[in-house]
Amino acid sequence: MIQNLVVTGRKQSTMTNLIAPHGSDLLNPLFVYDATENQRLQHEARSLPSLIVSSAAAANAVMMGAGYFNPLTGYMNKANVLSTATDLKTTDGLFWPVPIMNLVRDAGSITAGQRIARKDPNVEGNPVLAIMDVEAVETLSDHELAVIIDKVYGTSDPKHPGVAALLGQGRTLLSGPIKVLNFSYFQTEFPDTFRTAVEIRNEIAARGWSKVVAFQTRNPMHRAHEELCRMAMERLQADGLVIHMLLGKLKSGDIPAPVRDAAIRKMVEIYFPPNSAMVTGYGFDMLYAGPREALLHAVFRQNMGATHLILGRDHAGVGDYYGPFDAQTIFDTIPEGALKIDTFRADNTAYSKKLNKVVMMREAPDHTKEDFVALSGTAVREMLGKGIPPPAEFSRPEVAQILIEYYQALDNASAAQ
Q1: Which residues of the chain have pLDDT under 70?
Q2: Are residues 25 and 71 in contact, defined by beta-carbon separation less than 8 angstroms?
Q3: Is residue 143 helix, strand or coil?
Q4: For strand 240-246 and strand 277-282, is the pairing parallel, antiparallel, or unpaired?
Q5: SS3 for 322?
């Protein structure tokens, strides 16, 4: 039996039977919960040198503040960046799959040993997001940046959205510990959905769950996703499901978070039993890094209290950059004991006309393509834009209606331009 103490504001609540955080006995969120200290630091920040950071660096601060990137205490220096990129561990041996960086184009007069205010690029007025004690100011060479991109993304193609985002952040690396003062726009724009790892752990404990399945999504959930979650819960005999949606920056064309949130909440409200599923979200910019991002997803789902992470086909991928199961098989290559969380690995799921239910395609070897209700993303987009709901076997009608309203509004706005 694992017993953890998790900081919630000034208090610590005892949680029995929860999986331990990654890399430590206690969850260590970097948000300054003490209101007096938070105000003091905000006042101090007015007199500090300041820097508006990139959206990616801001999202990293939010994730550290929320406890998702436990046990990190701040941004990585060059040695740790290169070590995590090439060897999936920090220089002191902590398993970590993706560099957590604060890259800038120009550090100006900032030097090691300074205390600086880091300003939010995503909120009007650029309020201070965190205070940082700068331990090093280093520059990534062309070769070092190329190594990081190749190892993390598996491609150097500048059209890859994750590669493009990284190339736009600059070469100067500022590292050091941080104290997070707010959660950017996530808590204000998504008050019902954004949750810290601390809050999710607390709610899991309050619900009396022990075996918990996490489902990562950046899209609305159709029947196949819904049934995949149900399969995982049943086969693992899980106590509960945490639907954990990305609330940060996406690539062009992805459905915005408020629409996804509404669609997923409606599905859970109608089709899941009470106290079986939580709908939550986290503040991060999608990397589209496929296998490496899948490992990162596992790290911060363990930190929020999940015992299992659902890995579908092409998890965290984009385009044709990764094989359909690369994000699953990479878990077979990491050192034993690197993570405590386990995985539930799935194939594509679709509605079987023969069996009148959603199945994993690999578990229906007697089926042909014609035996499944399968629609392309383009076809679904066209139907929704015309106000035509997809077949009920593909999408719940209540979910389809929310998406129809979104796409029709989008199309009407485009036509009016």
Answers
A1: 1-16
A2: no
A3: helix
A4: parallel
A5: coil
CB-side neighbour CA atoms (13 Å) of 235: 12
Handedness of CA 63, 68, 73, 74 (dihedral sign): negative
Per-residue confidence (pLDDT) for residue 146, from 0 to 100 = 98
Q: How far is CA 177 from the centre of its chain?
A: 22
- Can you tell me the distance from the alpha carbon of 307 to that of 19, in angstroms, rounded to the nearest whole number? 6
**Farthest CA pair distance, the chain:** 70
Q: How far is Cα 238 from Cα 207, in angstroms, rounded to an integer?
A: 13
Q: What is the pLDDT of residues 110-167, one digit of tens each?
A: 999 999 999 999 999 999 999 999 999 999 999 999 999 999 999 999 999 999 999 9
Global confidence as pTM: 0.93
Residues 6+ positions from 265 with CB-CB distance below 8 Å: 279
Q: What is the pLDDT of residue 4?
A: 36
With residue 119 as reference, give the H or E element that holds it: strand 115-119
Active site residues: 218-219
Q: Transcribe 328-373 into DSSP letters.
A: HHGGGTSPTTS-S-EEEE---EEEETTTTEEEEGGG-TT--GGGEE
Strand partners, 103: 173
